[in-house]
Amino acid sequence: MSTTSLAKGTAVPTPAPLPWSGLLALSTAAFTAVMTELLPAGLLPRMAPALGVSEARVGFLVTGYAVASFAAAVPLTALLRGLPRRPVLVGALLGFALSNAVVALSSSYALTFGARLVAGCMGGTLWAMLVGYAARMVPAERRGRAIAIVLAGITLALSLGVPAGTAVAGALGWRAAFGVLAGLAVLLAFWVRWRVPGFPGEAPGARMPLGRVAALPGIPAVLSVTLFLLVGHQVMYTYVAPFAAHAGFGRTGLVLLVFGAATVVGIWLTGVLVDRHLRTTLLGALALCVAVMLALGLHAGAPALLLAAVALWGVAFGGAPTLIQTALVDASGPEHADVATSLQTTVYNAGIAVGSLTGGVVLENLGAGALPWTALPLVALALTAVTLGRRYAFPAARRRT
């Protein structure tokens, strides 16, 4: 580490530069995973005739991926935790390439569905690795920013990648879109092999059982925050179209555009603040989510207020995953981060499923106006869990391990 002399001759440490190439490779891996998971959702009318099934069954290609990712994250991470990390990461990317190539070439729904299950397993493995990998590539005091860079790939995929993939499918056909994804995954595997450092797997004597990792101080609180926030968020986000219609604002595309653009701002702000003010920033983000749900419940009929609330929601939620995952790695330590993140991946997907189901039940029985009032207490529970988790999960001063 280099030093810089101050005017009085005192030498202070100069932080080493971030390993940008390696972190951007991991961010592109996150981008590729989200694109692989969600692309079929935008191509239902094009894929259904080619596969000889209804659009609903094409939608099950997204469901199958999510279920496989949910089911595979913990067991595959446990099975592979002793192997060197970089070959496992490269293997997951090549699995994405193979799956997307099969989807691009297949005319059989059964074969396509099987390929999507393989992709889901690769996704579960990948998500369990990315945050821990980023944490091991940088000093502890820059861990939050490194995680923010990696998770920015999710935001870019949602705001730019999926629309771009749909545009490619419109111009060249849906098979070409999956072919491009397959090629990207292959190129990314070479990039990872070239620029991402290799780390050893866990030595047999150092492997902490899954139950003990889950019980480490702070881990249960972080997982609870993840679950409450995701359920509350998904109650609203899944049904934002009927809520916007209920509010008298039928331009759902504009609502989603505002939310997506705001998440970019949120992840940028988080990258600036996370390493110095993790607890304060997370408390602020969750408090803002609570205020947004309250505003949507009371005043969504005013278009300007609706869009302003959605923008603040995007800013708050955009940075939340980075803040929560940084807290998770702080609590587990980088040496147990893959296992801890696999647990969080399972909880994250469970939150999405429960939130979507809960929102659907509320919408059908109580109407769209009840959605923010359903989400509000759930997000408030996440805020409460952070407030009460001051000692281990979300300390005022982060542990530098």
Can you lay out the helices and strands and say which pair or pack?
Layout: E1 3-5, E2 11-13, H1 20-38, H2 44-51, H3 55-80, H4 85-105, H5 109-136, H6 143-172, H7 174-195, H8 210-214, H9 219-237, H10 240-246, H11 252-273, H12 278-299, H13 303-332, H14 337-366, H15 371-388
Antiparallel strand pairs: 1-2
Helix pairs in contact: 1-5, 1-6, 1-7, 2-3, 3-5, 3-14, 4-5, 4-7, 5-6, 5-14, 6-7, 6-11, 6-13, 9-13, 9-14, 9-15, 11-13, 12-13, 12-15, 13-14
Can you describe this structure?
This protein has 15 helices and two strands. By secondary structure, it is an all-alpha fold. The chain folds into two domains: 17-206, MFS general substrate transporter like domains (Growth Hormone, Chain: A, Up-down Bundle); 210-388, Up-down Bundle (Growth Hormone, Chain: A). The protein has a two-stranded antiparallel ribbon with strand order 1-2. A hairpin with a 5-residue loop joins strand 1 (3-5) and strand 2 (11-13). It starts with a strand and ends in a 13-residue tail after the last helix.
